[in-house]
Q: What sequence folds into this?
């Protein structure tokens, strides 16, 4: 396999990982808000219940992106993929400390 083919396969795997990670985090946060609203009737009747969903979705998206960048960077470093993948891709995920 060439670098281009390996990079393509790696990008597909990262895409699937991001989808699963995002769905898990969004689902967890959404269930937490539903639980919070169901336990407190005052919250259910307030403006909080109307703005909670967009805020939860935004927080979940940002959290999923941050976790994804860290774990993909760790994966590249752990399995020594720096020389096997495109340099632009590696520089996007791997931050030298």
A:
């Amino acid at each position: 396999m060439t670098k281009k083919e390996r990079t393509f396969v790696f990008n597909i795997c990262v895409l699937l990982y991001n989808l699963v990670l995002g769905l898990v985090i969004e689902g967890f946060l959404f269930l937490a808000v539903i639980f919070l609203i169901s336990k407190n009737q005052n919250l259910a009747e307030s403006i909080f219940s109307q703005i909670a969903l967009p805020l939860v979705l935004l927080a979940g998206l940002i959290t999923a992106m941050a976790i994804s960048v860290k774990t993909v960077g760790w994966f590249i470093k752990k399995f020594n993929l720096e020389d096997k993948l495109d340099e632009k891709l590696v520089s996007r995920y791997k931050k030298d400390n």
